[in-house]
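Just scan my protein:

——
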Amino acid sequence: MVGYTGKQACTIVGISYRQLDYWARTDLLRPSIEDANGTGTKRLYSFDDLINLKVIKQILDAGISLQSARRVLECLEKASFGEIARCSVVVSSDTAVLAYRDDDIVDLVKGGQGVLNILPLAQLVSNVATQVKIIDSQLSNSVNL
């Protein structure tokens, strides 16, 4: 299984190492491949971890609470990766759901009360995959030198 270090995860997702460390220490998202075990050990994040980190970042960038980010991660844990790439996260003040079709989003928005924040995941997954390819090519170029 391919793993990404904390530094690589930060570059791919666009967050600071301090944020990544805080999210791991508070159990918002711990690395699924290798967790830190004391000073000098490295965390290793999977591709799915990178997707979840990017979702958290975008939710927080949109001004949504950390508590809502936790609810979104709970939703994402119940879905398979193939489903995630085809759906959107819909967040309101008291709930988060995965919408699997654009029709669902329209219905939720038309019938819903209050403000809904919608995060389409297909573009997010594509952006993370592109950043992973860049990191991987930089690594292979440095090895070949």
Q: What stands out?
A: The longest helix spans residues 121-144. The chain has a mean pLDDT of 81.
